[in-house]
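Entry type: protein chain
Record version: 2
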Amino acid sequence: MLSQISEPRPRLPILGRGPLVVLIEDDPVMGQSLIEWFNIEGYRTEWFRTGRDAIQKLGDTDPDVILCDIRLPDLTGEEIFKVIAPQIFGTPILFITGFGEIDQAVRLMKAGAADYMTKPFEIDALLQRIEKLIASRRALTEGYELGNSPAIAIVERQLRRLATVDSTVLLTGPSGAGKEVAARFLHAKGQRHPQPFMAINCAAIPAELLESEIFGHEKGAFTGAQARRIGYAEQAGDGILFLDEVADLPLTMQAKLLRLLQERTFMRVGGDRLTSFRARVIAATNADLTQRVKDGRFREDLYYRLAVIVVDIPALRARPEDILALANRFLGEFCSSFGTGQKQVSFLAEDALLAHDYPGNIRELRNRIERAVALAETDLIGPADLFPEKVHRGASSDPVLSLQQSRDTAERRAILAALALSKGDVTLAAQRLDVSRSTLFEKIRRLDIRYEG
C-alpha cells in the first residue's frame, strides 16, 4: 500500500505524449491512487487489473516502464514475467512485493526484471525509481533511425531482431508508408549488408517481361534477346531480393516464384541448367493477401512461403510524432540538392503539416516538401506552399492574427520547446521558462497543450 495518499494534490492536465506507464494491479484503491499520481506527473497510463488481461493486451502498447504487483488473483508475477518478457523488448519492469515475497522478487531480478519495491512505500520514492528506469531505457533507444513515434519504434525493434536471422519477411502497409525503406534498413543491419540489395517492382513491369527480369535469359531465348541477361535473382547473389508489390504477380509467375523459394534454384529463360539461388527474400504489398487468396487471385502455398514473418508498416497518420522530423529531413535534402539555400517552415505551416491526414503517407509528405522548396518565393515556407489546393484564390496564405492569438501562439511554442528540452519534465520546463510550476500547468491547461515527446 502507499504510505502517503491521504492528501492528494489537485488534478493537473495530462501531457498526452508523455512516457507510458503500464500498471498491473488488482487492488482498486491502490491502483486508482497510483494512476492519479502518474497523471499528475505527466505520464500516460494503462491499467490492467488481472495478469491474463495484461498478457492479452500488452502487445498493443509500447510502454516505457511496467509496474506489476507480484501477487494477483489469477497469476503470480513470475508467471506474468515469463510470458511477457519476449514481448516487451527490454522494457523495464518494476515489481511491487510484500515482505514475504522478497525471495521471489530477487529471483525475478536475476531473470531480468529491472527493480522491485516492498510495501508500504513512499510515492516519491516510487516516482524517482520510475523516472530513472524511463531515463535509462530512453538512453538506450534514443538512436531510433526510422522515427521516434511509438508505432515506428515497435517496427524498428522488430526489424533489428529480424536482421540477425534469414527468414523470409513480408512487409505490409499502405502505399507510401516506407516499406522499401524498412527493407533496406533490414538489409543494412544484417550480415548480408555487404552483398547486393536488388529491388524489383512487380507492378511496374509488363507480365510478359517479368520472368526474364527476375530469372534472366539466354541469348536467342526470344525475339530481341541478343545477349545473355543476368536476372535480379542471380544479381542478388548472397544479398537481398526485394519483391515490391508482390500481390500483382500473375499466377504463372507466382508458381515460378514458389518453386524458387522451395527449391532455391531457378533456370534462365531459354536455359537448360539450374542455377542456385542464395539470396534472402523480402516481399512487400499494400494489398490484403489473405483476401486475394480467398478470391483465387493469389496462391495460398506462395502466401505461406512469403508470410513466414509479417511486419506491418504503419501509416503516417498513426505516427504523428514523426511528421515534423521527416519534413525537416526532406527540407534539408531538397534545399541542398536544389541549391536554394536553407529555407524554413513557418509555425503556421507546421500546424498545417500536423493537421493533414496524409492519404499518400510519407511519399506525399516528401512530394509536398519538394514542391514547396522548388516553388516558394521566400525562404519562409507557408501553408500555401505546402497545400496550394486548400487556399482559395485571392485569400491570404498567412491570415493576420489578433494580438491575443499571437501571444497564445508564441507561448505555446515556447512551452513546447521547453518541454522538449526537458524531455517532458514540467518542473525543469518551468525553470527554463522562469515561471512557477503551477503557472506553467495553468498555461498548459488554458492552451490545451499536448506535448508530443
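Comment: Residues 123-141 form the longest helix (19 residues).
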